[in-house]
Amino acid sequence: MTKEQLTRHIKENFSAELDVIENEQPEPYFIIKADNLVKFCRFIHDDPGLVMDFLMNLSGVDTGERFEVVYNVCSYRLKHRIYFKILLDRQNAEFDTVRSVWPAADWYEREVWELFGMNVRGHPNLTRFLLPDDWDEGHPLRKDWVGKDVIPFPER
Amino acid sequence: MAEQLRTEEMMVNMGPQHPSTHGVCRLILTIDGEVINDCVPVIGYLHRAIEKICENRTYAQCIPLMDRFEYVTAMSCNWVFALAAEKLSDIEIPERAEYLRVIMAELNRMASHLLCIGVTSMDIGALTPFLYTFREREMILDLFEMTCGQRLTYNYIRVGGVSRDIPPEFVPMCRQFLDIIDAKVDDYERVLTENPIWIARNKGIGIIPEQMVYDYAISGPSARASGVNFDIRKHDTYSIYDRFDFEVPVFYGCDSYDRYRARIAEVRQSARIVRQALDGLPDGPVRAKVSMNFKTKPGEVYTRIENSRGEMGINLISDGSRKPFRVRARGGSYNHLMALPDIVRGTKIADLVAIFASLDIIMPEIDR
Which pairing describes strands B299-307 and B161-162: parallel, antiparallel, or unpaired? Predict the structure, then answer.
């Protein structure tokens, strides 16, 4: 499906609200309500016109004001992809695990939990991952986290 | 008598320093005799915080960091990052640069597959194929060295093109290499493909059913050895790959043996692409004008390219300044290691080494 067809198909068939963001990239871009996340993932995974069976990437983002979680999903069978994300409050950021839809989310979510300090509801294995076992210096990928010996790059 | 013997589970640490883990990876194995009941990968030994460092560097300074993201195919890493930055700006890439990128990335893919095949055979106990494949890999590294002065971390593909043109001796030397590589791959096949020991160690070992490919987002030759016909170069094409005539080898054995065969077949296909690219190589500039303070438009993009170990992607978020706002690098090995416990459960320890090698896992790509 082309970008327009995909966008229309998802907007017409998904029962809850979602925002479409226009951009120049080849894939459609949505913003989902965090409460609908699992429902949306289940929908795009199971819908015979979409068959999003391949979770390419999942990244946490700290914009300074809020947290975001970006999902890049594609279909191995139908060769199309979409880009969507959820927005979270910076205080008590929590979102649901999508391991039940794509088991590959397991490690991606662990990484988001560790490096951003967002809580992943329903994830059974939130333990130290990339950082050392005795790490107690917070969540490094947050924007307000600055390493001890980091010289900030000059803004010009 | 044997049935009455009581057996007990035992925990064994494989790694972090183990010659066959291709990096620093620790596997906590729960074994019952020789049989693996559970396997827990422990990663992070090579974590260098590349993503965090990128947020404090300009785009040009990020490219050498990307070399370290996955140093066996550093050309692809450079490329995927440059591609992401270019998608968020209006740079026109010169034709010659596109061809050079394809040539370098395909040569790099061949070098990486040769490494994988050689190292897999060495892990299983056959030293000779390792020496053979490294002999040819050396020729590729010589080509890279004469182009950009480096043998492993090239910093060659930049935003807007490539860092410099190839020297005049490159094309004849590359053709010379392509002339022999097909015969050499035949040699490897003669040593390995029909070798009864190789077959016994690989066939039916490390089964990845098709469903597991989808579940764990396994990509690249490992997915194509399980019957999934997907190659980003063909099905989500980027750069100028649509101009070349090549096939996507797909195998249906789902085992280590077919993953090896998929790699062998890809080496041949890559040689085909390089040959076509050398024939079509146009003259002209190799780099668009990109200022030192290069800025992208604000926006978000996910780019991916077909790397030798699967999909390599960059999720780049830019706020319009001269530094990336957020970079998330995705490598194929990450998902392969994630799937490893499911693959090896119930197999023998000795097979674990063969399976690990056949997945072509490279640790820096996972730890970043």
Answer: unpaired
* B283's tokens: 């003259």
Question: Domains of chain B (ranges plus CATH)?
Answer: 49-331 (1.10.645.10)
Indicate the residue of B43, B214, B301 with minimum beta-carbon distance to A76: B214
- Per residue in B69-102, pLDDT (tens digit) is 888 889 999 999 999 998 888 888 899 999 999 9
Q: Alpha-carbon distance B83 to B241, whole Å?
A: 14
Contacts of A53 in chain B (CB under 8 A): 214
CA distance B111 to chain A (A): 25
Q: Which residues, other chains included, contact B115 with Cβ-Cβ below 8 Å and sequence gap of 6+?
A: B72, B133, B134, B137
- In angstroms, the CA B364 to CA B66 distance is 11
Range list of β-strands (E), chain B: 9-14, 26-32, 35-42, 157-158, 161-162, 299-307, 310-318, 326-330
Taking CB atoms and an 8 Å limit, are B300 and A76 in contact across chains? no
User: What amino acid occupies position B214?
Assistant: Y
The ipTM estimated for the assembled molecules is 0.87
The answer to whether B324 touches B295, Cβ cutoff 8 Å, is no
| B334–A129 CB contact, under 8 Å | no
- For B258-281, write each residue's pLDDT tens digit: 999 999 999 999 999 999 999 988
Is A94 in a helix, a strand, or coil?
Answer: strand
CA distance A113 to B174: 47
CA angle A76, A80, A86 (to 5 degrees): 100
Are B129 and B188 spatial neighbours (Cβ–Cβ below 8 Å)? yes
User: Can you tell me whether residue B352 is helix, strand or coil?
Assistant: helix
Locate the chain B residue with the closest alpha carbon to A58. B328
Q: What is the pLDDT of residues A94-152, one digit of tens each?
A: 888 998 889 988 899 999 998 888 888 888 888 888 888 888 888 888 888 887 787 77
Sign of the Cα torsion B354, B355, B356, B362 reads: positive
Q: How far is A99 from chain B (nearest CA, A)?
A: 9
CA B259 to chain centre: 13
